[in-house]
Design brief:
The complex is a heterodimer of chains A (355) and B (321).
Chain A lengths: L9 E3 H4 L11 H26 L14 H10 L5 E3 L5 H7 L3 H9 L31 H15 L7 E6 L6 H12 L4 E7 L2 E2 L2 E2 L11 H6 L2 E6 L3 H16 L5 E6 L17 H5 L6 H11 L5 H23 L28
Parallel strand pairs in A: 1-7, 2-3, 3-4, 4-8, 7-8
Antiparallel strand pairs in A: 5-6
Chain B lengths: L2 E2 H15 L3 E5 L15 H4 L4 E3 L4 H13 L3 E5 L10 H15 L6 E6 L14 H5 L5 E3 L4 H13 L4 E6 L2 H4 L1 E2 L13 E4 L4 E5 L3 H13 L5 E5 L2 E3 L3 H11 L2 E4 L8 H13 L8 E3 L10 H7 L3 H13 L1
Parallel strand pairs in B: 2-3, 2-4, 4-5, 5-7, 6-7, 10-11, 10-13, 13-14
Antiparallel strand pairs in B: 1-8, 6-12, 9-11
Helix pairs in contact in B: 1-6, 3-4, 8-12, 9-10
The chains are: A alpha/beta (355), B alpha/beta (321).
């Protein structure tokens, strides 16, 4: 865990408690929507793991178990017209941004009706033309892509939009991440970058990944605002990220949010995560964000036990029903596949035979 | 007045900026300074806010262009030298090139690569990258050899919905001149028969077209009539024009400033061997740069790359086969 104090421009949410500027104040409505989305993500991902174990999903399955609070906190604060480039443990954020259980399952199960049509799978999905970028596997690459979307909006004179992306502790070591962060800072873009420090990049611990002690100190190096959130605490994540998004939207430039948490599963469903020490799992960091959030909502009387039960039942039913539907959908047909990677070249659009 | 190849690049960008509000240019030192080669001279002044200096971050430069293209812009990226584009390789080949196939969203961007060798350039300011980028599905690779082509093809690249790697040759920047710029161009992807002939075909592109033409002129003294085909765009490749030329001459030499392994020359020969084997009167030949890094000293460099004299030698050998 990295809780060192950072020299400049950092705001510790713990130190400030509830006394922050209020722009991220959590309302009942936001908390309910966030929690409901976390439930959807958790139940959907449990089903994805089961489908993987039964051989229905080929390739990798990468779950966000334990990271839903942080992920959803970003997704719920974005709106139509914003740009969002999620990473591999952002099922909750994706659903909050407008992705669906249906398209998630279509992509994982390779339905030809999904947004990726069997051409790409699992977490590599998106609808770039709608501001929902489809990540590539090369970590850090999406930071500058989001910069580009925001630059385009600036050229068009569109104001008020925010761009957001997420990365893990390991991804912060890439040159691509550094280049993108520096670029966002130079261009003073309305951007929020959330670092989920889940302590292990696949199996590599923080002390083999970086030597700066606290990733939040990087914000000062880039000349941007840094904020810390408690990664498994929904209310804290909602407040801190809410403030970060509001600040970016208000023209205060890029915002780096760093949150410590623990991934409660392996890197992929093939990984037993035996490298995570038991003591860490039993520490506060290892508490399940879903349990914490449930307590928070009940304490605030924002939900009742009855509501929670009915939400769980409704989400389970939706997931099961959608799986049944998608399993009956057609797989992509190699004979019908458009084996041309160009959008116009070679398509005979002008009547010219181009290749 | 005469217009250089470099000035034609500047004028094409000026026109693209003037005619299409979606166009912007992004690269190192291209703003007020006008670029390392002055390909954007005065453009930042003429089009405020649309010709932007970038940090030395080739990966993020291309990433930004991709994100802007997705949002409907038409970015032109200037790499300071083609060689440095390897620092942006990941974004070019894994994001820009795959985007349409994966997501159905087009990625209309142009990456300008000041390419090829010049005396004293050395290993890191001389490379020809066209084969590397042509390898990846989803990228158009243009290699203009003339002032007229560099102008019309750059405009064509900006208008295209697919990502374009635009290999402009530094050796041609100041050497080549034209009296005026054309309004019309050959169709996209079409090769040009620059010099008609009947005894052998030389397929070349970019600066090598001029070495091939000089070699053809030399061989004409000996009574040989050499046909020179300028590929113009190496991907997509105009196999039809190549095959038609080989059908006329029966002999093929492909000249490329790039290294031989897996290169454009190898691709041309593979296609002719597979689709036009019966048209050949002799084994198809290629002449590439030597298989070492591009050397610094002009004496070494002049031998490393194909020249009119080495093309002429290769042609003489081909004609005796």
């Amino acid at each position: 865990m990295t809780k060192g104090s950072s020299p400049v421009q950092t705001i510790s949410s713990q130190a400030l408690g509830n006394g922050r500027n209020g722009t991220g104040r959590v309302t009942k409505e936001i908390a309910r929507r966030a929690f409901r989305t976390m439930l959807e993500a958790r139940i959907l991902e449990e089903k994805l793991a089961a489908l993987y174990r039964s051989g229905k999903i080929v390739g990798g399955v990468f779950l966000g178990r334990g990271q839903e609070a942080l992920s959803v906190a970003l997704g719920v604060h974005l709106r139509r017209g914003d740009i969002y480039a999620p990473l591999i443990r952002d099922q909750a954020g994706r659903l909050a941004f407008g992705d669906t259980i249906l398209d998630t399952l279509r992509t994982y199960l390779g339905s030809s009706l999904g947004s990726m049509r069997g051409r790409d799978g699992n977490i590599h999905r998106g609808r770039p033309s709608e501001g929902y970028h489809a990540m590539i596997s090369h970590l850090g690459a999406m930071v500058s892509t989001v910069c580009g979307g925001l630059v385009a909006k600036r050229f068009r004179g569109e104001t008020g939009a925010v761009g957001a992306t997420c990365i893990g502790d390991g991804g912060t070591s890439t040159g691509s991440f550094h280049e993108g962060m520096n670029m966002a800072a130079v261009e003073k873009l309305p951007m929020v970058v959330v670092v989920a420090n889940n302590q292990f990049s696949y199996s590599t611990p923080n002390d083999r990944q970086f030597a700066c002690g606290d990733l939040l100190t990087r914000a000062a190096g880039y000349g941007i605002t840094g904020r810390r959130a408690i990664g498994n605490d929904l209310i804290d994540c909602l407040e801190v990220i809410g403030e970060a998004v509001a600040a970016a939207r208000a023209g205060e430039g890029p915002q780096l949010v760093v949150a410590d948490l623990l991934r409660l599963v392996g890197h992929s469903e093939q990984d037993d995560a035996s490298y995570i020490p038991a003591a860490l799992k039993e520490s506060p960091l290892g508490r399940d964000c879903l349990d914490i959030a449930e307590d928070q909502l009940l304490e605030n009387e924002w939900v009742t036990d009855t509501e929670l039960s009915s939400w769980r039942a409704a989400v389970k039913a939706e997931v099961e029903e959608t799986v049944g539907k998608v399993l009956r959908e057609p797989a992509p047909d190699p004979a019908e596949e458009d084996w041309n990677a160009f959008s116009v070249v070679g398509r005979n659009l002008s009547g010219e035979d181009e290749e | 007045m005469s217009i250089t190849y470099l000035e034609a690049i500047r004028l094409a960008q000026q026109r693209a900026l003037a005619e299409d509000p979606r166009v912007f240019i992004y690269g190192q030192d291209i703003g007020a300074f006008g670029g390392a080669f002055k390909a954007t001279k005065n453009l930042a002044k003429e089009f405020p806010g649309r010709v932007l200096d970038a940090p030395i971050s080739e990966d993020a430069i291309v990433g930004l262009a991709i994100g802007a293209a997705v949002e409907g812009m038409r970015p032109i990226v200037e790499m300071q030298f083609a060689d440095f584009s390897t620092c942006g390789l990941n974004q070019i080949v894994n994001q820009a090139a795959t985007l349409y196939y994966r997501t159905g969203t087009p990625c209309p961007l142009v990456v300008r690569l000041p390419s090829g060798g010049t005396p004293g350039g050395g290993p890191f300011h001389s490379q020809s990258m066209e084969s590397l980028y042509a390898h990846y599905p989803g990228l158009v690779v243009m290699t203009p050899a003339t002032v007229e082509d560099v102008y019309t093809m750059l405009l064509e690249a900006v208008a295209l919905d697919d990502p374009v790697i635009f290999c402009e040759h530094k050796f041609l920047y100041y050497h080549l001149k034209a009296e005026k710029l054309p309004e019309e161009a050959l169709p996209f992807g079409k090769a040009r028969i620059t010099r008609p002939g009947r005894d052998a075909t030389v397929v070349a592109y970019s600066a090598m077209v001029h070495e091939a033409l000089a070699a053809a002129e030399e061989l004409s003294q000996d009574g040989y009539d050499i046909e020179v085909v300028d590929l113009r765009t190496v991907k997509p490749i105009d196999t039809d024009t190549i095959l038609a030329s080989v059908a006329r001459t029966g002999r093929l030499l492909v000249v490329s400033e790039d290294w031989p392994w897996g290169g454009v020359a190898a691709e041309v020969i593979a296609r002719v061997a597979a689709e036009g084997f019966g048209l050949l009167d002799a084994p198809p030949q290629r002449l590439n740069a030597r298989e070492t890094p591009v050397p610094y000293h002009p004496a070494l460099w002049g031998t490393h790359r194909p020249t009119a004299s080495s093309v002429a030698n290769s042609l003489r050998q081909l004609l005796e086969l």
